[in-house]
Amino acid sequence: MAASSVFIPPEWAPQRALWCGWPHLREEWGSAFEPARREIAELIRVASRFQPVRVACGSQEAEAAARAAVGPGAASVRFVRVPTGDIWLRDTGPIMAEQGTQLVALDFRFNGWGGKYIMPGDAETASAIAAKEGISVRQHAFVLEGGAIDMDGAGRLITTRQCLLNANRNPGCDESMVEEVLRTQLGVDEVVWLDQGLDHDHTDGHIDNLARFVGPGHVLCQTPSGREDVQSARLEAAEAQLRAAGLMVSTLPSPGRILNADGEDLPASHMNFTVINGAVLLPVYEAEFAPQAIARLQALFPRHEVIAVGAQAILSGGGSVHCMTREIPHIDHMVSGRIA
Predict the structure, then answer these.
(1) Pairing mode, strands 136-143 and 190-194
(2) Distance between alpha carbon 28 and the CA centroid of its chain, in Å?
(3) Averaged pLDDT of the chain
(4) Range of the domain at 74
(5) Residue-level pLDDT at 67
(6) 259 φψ region: left (φ > 0), alpha (ψ -120 to 50), beta (else)
(7) In angstroms, rounded to a whole number, what is the distance separating the alpha carbons of residues 175 and 177?
(8) So what's the pLDDT on residue 339?
């Protein structure tokens, strides 16, 4: 392990809770506002079958709407008032780490995805979630979103140059400087760089839309689906770079070309799944390629139930299932947090 004493558990490690975002800025969603709420309510109900779920509610109206949409049957769901702009807790929430016998919340600076989307509350979300969980916070001046990195729990991290070397995040930082931050603050030994994320991704190429670790040294990425898959070149380049890095590589089909209501291409991805205790929540957008993606993911997670969740409306807001969730790891010797 690197010099840092911090360890970031992989997503498949035991979890004590899952945080989910809830839309409350209607103007950011337009006609997808209510459909997205319905999709997210179903996601929350599904996840609550496996572990406790906390719903991050950014307003009184949001809390009331979330309670009504999820319904009374999900006993393990808690609705929590915390400052939030939009729902993307993977980026605005804390990165959870183990340090010795404690959990610590790493609160990296958030600047609205390079200054493109500045919303009240987003910069306060990470520390607020940590406070609700009773976890101490370590703040960092470096700009970093959780969706921009993926780690395997064995010292490896994957990311994209398009995002982490973008001048709109940490101007003046070159590749070696960024690597040093990742090694010292996240406790990783090896950084694997891919050049670009998906086209039409306004996060500037987050890795969680492109490739994900499914085990130590084992990474999953997508192959193009259909002749009109606008992501073909980027998917093929990513797979080649992962293989060249010496990783074990598995693949599943992409969702193909997915359009919004205005006929514009969306960065739809089967990589934006969320792993929880006993289940993998896989976003689906269409019927042709989803069954094969489900089957391949199930083979990679034989001890989990792979569950397809509709995410077309969520995607119209700019992200998907992984983007809007943040897990809280479980440490056997940890005392339960403030939220029962």
Answers:
(1) unpaired
(2) 19
(3) 94
(4) 6-329
(5) 97
(6) beta
(7) 5
(8) 42
* 18/52 Cα distance (integer angstroms): 6
Would residue 334 count as lying in a domain? Answer: no
Tell me the DSSP string of 107-167. EEE--HHHHT---TTGGGHHHHHHHHHT-EEEEEEEE--GGG-EE-SSSEEEEEHHHHT-T
Strands 150-151 and 77-81: unpaired
CA 219/CA 336 separation, integer angstroms: 32
Q: Which residue numbers in the chain have pLDDT < 50? A: 1-3, 333-340
Half-sphere exposure of 336 (CA within 13 A, CB side): 5
CATH classification at residue 294: 3.75.10.10
Which residues participate in catalysis according to the annotation? Answer: 323
CA dihedral of residues 296, 325, 57, 83 (deg, nearest 10): -160
| Residue 169 counted as domain residue | yes
pLDDT tens, residue by residue, 188-205: 999 999 999 999 999 999
- Residue 201 inside a domain? The answer is yes
- Please name which of 286, 247, 254, 292 lies closest in space to residue 272, comparing C-alpha atoms: 254
Count the domains in the chain: 1
Each residue of 14-52: pLDDT tens digit? 999 999 999 999 999 999 999 999 999 999 999 999 999
Beta strands in the chain (DSSP E): 6-7, 15-21, 53-57, 77-81, 95-99, 102-109, 136-143, 150-151, 156-160, 190-194, 211-215, 218-223, 248-253, 274-276, 279-284, 305-310, 325-329
Nearest-angstrom CA–CA distance, 234 and 210: 9
* Confidence at residue 226, expressed as pLDDT on a 0 to 100 scale: 82
Residue 339 in any domain: the answer is no
Q: Report pLDDT for 262.
A: 82
What's the CA gap between 192 and 157, in Å, rounded?
6
